[in-house]
Fold this sequence. Notes:
There is one protein chain. The chain folds into 2 domains: 6-209, DHBP synthase (Alpha-Beta Complex); 229-316, Rossmann fold (3-Layer(aba) Sandwich). It is built from 10 helices and 13 strands. It has helices spanning 6-17, 39-49, 64-70, 76-85, 102-105, 119-128, 148-154, 193-197, 269-285, 301-314, and strands at 22-24, 31-35, 58-60, 90-95, 110-114, 132-133, 160-161, 174-179, 182-187, 229-231, 244-248, 259-262, 290-293. A hairpin with a 6-residue loop joins strand 1 and strand 2 (31-35). Helix 1 (6-17) crosses helix 6. The structure holds threonylcarbamoyladenylate and magnesium ion. The site of threonylcarbamoyladenylate has 29 residues, from strand 4, strand 5 and strand 9. Residues 135-136, 144 line the site of magnesium ion (MG).
Amino acid sequence: MPEINLEDIQKAANLIRAGKLVAFPTETVYGLGANALDPKAVAEIFKTKERPSFDPLIVHIHSLAQLDLLTKNTDSRVYRLAEKFWPGPLTIVLSKSKVVPDIVTSGLPTVGIRMPRNEIALELIRQSGCPIAAPSANKFGRISPTKAQHVEKQLKNVDYILDGGQTTVGIESTVITLHVDGFVILRQGIITKEDLESVLPQSLQSIENDEQISSPGHIKSHYSPTKPIYILNEDSKRMNTKNAAFLSFGSSAEFDVKTTEFLSSSGNLTEAAVNLFEKLHSLEESDCDFIIAEPVPEEGIGIAIMDRLRKAAHKYLKS
Ligand code: TXA
Ligand code: MG
């Protein structure tokens, strides 16, 4: 991780306090942050990202005191989760307190809270003196940013970008909600169902298997590169692939392609998660015509990676 420049963080914190937008690194992806308690500043996030107002934001905190300010939580399981996974890539959806403006939660009575595991992010929240609402710093539906340059490429009206180098996890936090008898994963991430079960007794259905449980951000198309992307299957072998890029998880392409990029050359899922958005960004800028992605095994972190790949490919599915 690059050295933290305290003056830059101070400057960014002053901007947050003044109602401006600051993009900052977290361990997962870069966030587009604003003072979570300032509805006007939060409205600018939606405008800049072209994000629909029905999709609620995650609020980032640096201390458990801020959790108590923002939520009506009295559930001891939350503190057990916090002890094990915070700071870290876990977002917990909880009943919100009155201080959270409705625009942050898209009018829902709940708010997603997370304490990021990144020193720049934590220091920014501390110096700002307020919790920071931040979605991923990409245009709605496009590839999430894992570098400051990815933010610059997509978003033009950001007041300041804190450059903390490449993020270390690479995909967004696991989002969960708690029920009396267990938890539900609303978005998959590198903290897996099995990790959560080491702290909480029981996982209920994951959202993929239960259309009844909904998260407003749970949409089929997302994370899409500007070039078509397809997941490798029997049909891909019949395509003319000589101008395609192959996004590999260890294998070499069994057909002619222009170029091959590896999510991980050794088939390592953690490494693949780190590289996923970075490789998609570089391939959308490359001169290939389209991308064919090799599926990864759907176990552990592979579940979250396949979730991102399927959503990236969804709008290019042939009907
Ligand atoms: O790793 C991350 O979570 C990154 C970094 C910047 O922290 N943030 C991020 O935010 O991915 P965003 O806005 O791109 O995704 C937030 C997800 C959305 O799918 C949203 O619908 C869900 O969290 N979410 C937020 N608040 C919610 C709530 N109250 N109820 C259900 N889902 C919620
Ligand atoms: Mg996002």
